[in-house]
Design brief:
It comes from Bifidobacterium [indicum] DSM 20214 = LMG 11587. The protein has one domain: Glycosidases (TIM Barrel). The protein is 38% helix and 15% strand.
Length: 479
Amino acid sequence: MSETSRFAFPSDFTWGTATASFQVEGATREEGRADSIWDTFCREPGRILDGSNGDQACDEYHRYPEDIALMKEMGVGAYRLSVAWPRIFPSARGGVNQAGLDHYRRVLDMLREEGIKPVVTLYHWDLPQYLQDAGGWANRDTAKRYAEYAGVLAGAFGDSVDTWTTLNEPWCTAYLGYGNGVHAPGIRDYDQTLAAVHHLNLAHGLGAQAIRAELGDKARVSVTLNLQVTRAQSQSEEDRAAKIRADLFANEVWLGPMLAGTYDPRIREAAQGVTDWRFVQEGDLETIHQPLDVLGINYYSTTYVQASHGEDSPARAAVGPQGSLPDQEANAMPAQESVETLPPRGELTAMGWNQEPQGLTDLLLEVSRRFPDLDLMVTENGSAWEDEVSPDSSQAKGKIVHDPKRVVYLEQHIGAVADAIRDGARVTGYFAWSLLDNFEWALGYTRRFGLIRVEYPTQERIWKDSGLRYAQIVRDNAI
């Protein structure tokens, strides 16, 4: 977007911010909550970079009134939060934990009172450990248990939820949890990976059916995918084929079943020798292919790939930039061994990810042209940097974080959304990741994405320049 141009967003455009339950809530042993796979993963030595866990995190379980007040001050009209499944069904024997439902009801009611629309993600990676003990997402029964959970939430919360998001980034759940093992539950088995892919798709379809069975057509149903923008390193036939293969396993395993009711036959062909697809049953694709009111898209960076040329060029396309940890060799799916992911270029964020706002524009336009009747929302977008607190007498706490690189990233990517809308993409909202610094999964508390800083020992919240800039953009409804 030109630095001298100004784009006014549509008057009904949704501005929001986002978090996830395990990353911010804490209170992992309060009011009946059971262990999730991430509680277990954090206890395994060497799994989390700084040896930390989510026991306290940002303490949002207790501090949500303070954080809702911050959202109100920021001016956002929506908050994307997730429900912790182990708070609702803490036992393998079944039975709903009323204390868990009551907590989220209080949060939803307060958001509504402040004029902030709740966008609720039902599954943001914190699978109850007892379900993992029974096979997790590699087990078909987990999708059925998910549908039960979705139906209970829909019945309990009803009209209090503006948008129901079935899953967040199932790509990460399947490939990082069951493929290279860098996320919970830490399994390295690509037959289980593809079983998890299918059962997550099935859970989405069953969950959408369960929500609509409770609420009817008035339910606004979505799913959030971290669709990856993969660039071929060159226009050679080999490199273009590598991009296609990477896209099949990163994107088409979700888009095909969810939005078209089919798996691209090239996926099965490419995965020969990995799985026999025994987990796909008759009628599954019809179940998965449910009407969507909006598709959520998470975007951070792009990936450049080329054809792999032997053992000295390890394939990494099944992992991609958001799955890699610093100085950790990724483990590629055997079906991806002909694809090599190249090191990112340019100034990298603290996550080691590149910055390419054009990738967000391209992605939104591509998806909108492919599915022209579907509304899109950018449900996560943000960047991690090394932050420092500075004195500032103009702020209530006398402190502020000057984060010019995050400000630039924010402005450029919101500008990329504006470009996509101007060129015809049906984008109806943008959610900045994240409201708060939080537990960054396998990286623990070593990376900060927040628009507001959290001092973890004291739980003090401190504004960053990026949060103030975002508030201005929201207020102006323009970039």
